[in-house]
Design a protein that fits this description.
single chain; alpha/beta; Rossmann fold; seven-stranded mixed sheet; 14 helices; globular
Length: about 350
């Protein structure tokens, strides 16, 4: 009886030791797996550009941001000079079938043509009303001027902006099937956030109407309206029904494109941007990119190439002016197809 008790006690002790070892091994394995999971998660969270493929361009962006914010580095940029300027249409959001800022203008143009049918004879106005994208883009700079002229003449600043957000929230982009207010490029939103987190002050310099761009800049790109540079119409002080107003006179006071962009940026900032981004397709961003490149100190220029027919659009200038200029002056070129994992978050 005594031997049997001892035997059972021994077996119980062995069982408990084995069970204890099993739990210990399980604890160790579980801890290791948890650490691996945490490390992978931390790594994923530490990637500030998750929508960018791991290409040399992504690394170049990360390297510039790190160098420009590391005191003592040859490419260090002092905080007061950390200014980043972005074109909007085609750079931060699609410019096809029409630039987003022209969506509200379309409503105003329809209203103006209904009151004065002869305005519909202007080529760009006729193209916009017919939905003829090819003819609209063929109208070029003069076409945009005509649209803004027709859509704003005689209206007050308050009348122009009151319907911007509702129209952008209501209007659905024909390709992406989301409201126009949700069509910001996700990779560029991440880039804006990365720069902002590292002491850069982000600005928009667009050819689109200033007042309309200001209405959408914060919601879509996290850029406050006071950091927006754009085209604007002649404005005069007036009085209506005993109340003071600012009224548009139908005259384009400043078209912010091409060689006009560096001038407008200098008027607003008084300095050359250390980081600047534009896109090919309209030749309008090369001047400001060259101006940034020639600053005294480190700089970074980014040109978006619309080469992704499946996830966005594929188009270019007939003479490849912007792409050739980017190669000549050493700008970085973004291939939407190769450098981005996605375009629009749906």
């Amino acid at each position: 009886m005594t031997l049997d008790i001892k035997r059972r006690a021994f077996e119980g002790d062995v069982h408990m030791r084995l069970l204890s070892n099993h739990h210990a091994v399980g604890f160790v394995v579980g801890t290791v797996l948890a650490c691996i999971t945490l490390n992978v998660s931390a790594w994923a969270q530490s990637d500030p550009l998750p929508s960018w493929n791991a290409t040399p361009l992504k690394q170049a962006i990360l390297d510039f941001v790190k160098a420009s914010t590391s005191e003592g580095h040859p490419k260090y940029v002092v905080p007061k000079d950390r200014v980043a300027v972005f074109d909007m249409d085609g750079t931060l959001a699609p410019e096809k079938p029409v630039p987003i800022a022209l969506i509200p203008v379309l409503a105003d143009v329809k209203e103006a043509v209904a009151a004065k049918p002869f305005l519909g004879e202007k080529p760009a106005v006729a193209a916009l009303l017919k939905g003829d994208e090819q003819a609209l883009h063929a109208a070029g700079q003069q076409g945009i001027l005509d649209l803004v002229n027709v859509g704003t003449d005689g209206k007050t600043t308050e009348e122009i902006v009151k319907n911007v957000r509702p129209l952008l929230d209501k209007g659905i982009h024909p390709k992406f099937k989301v409201p126009y207010s949700k069509t910001a490029y996700q990779p560029m939103r991440e880039l804006l956030a990365l720069l902002e987190a590292n002491g850069f002050q982000n600005w928009i310099s667009s050819g689109s109407p200033l007042l309309i761009t200001r209405e959408l800049s914060m919601e879509m790109f996290g850029i406050p309206p006071e950091r927006v540079i754009g085209s604007y119409v002649g404005t005069k002080f007036d009085e209506r029904d005993g109340r003071t107003v600012l009224v548009f006179d139908g005259r384009i006071a400043n078209f912010n494109d091409g060689a006009g962009k560096p001038v407008s940026i200098n008027n607003a900032l008084g300095k050359r941007p250390a980081f600047i981004a534009g896109n090919e397709g309209g030749r309008g961003d090369i001047a400001m990119m060259r101006w940034s490149k020639d600053r005294d100190g480190p700089s970074f220029q980014l040109l978006i190439n619309h080469d992704d027919e499946l996830r966005e659009y594929a188009y270019s200038e007939s003479d490849n002016y912007s792409l050739e200029a980017a190669k000549k002056y050493g700008f970085h070129i973004v291939s939407m197809k190769d450098d981005w994992k996605t375009t629009i978050e749906r």
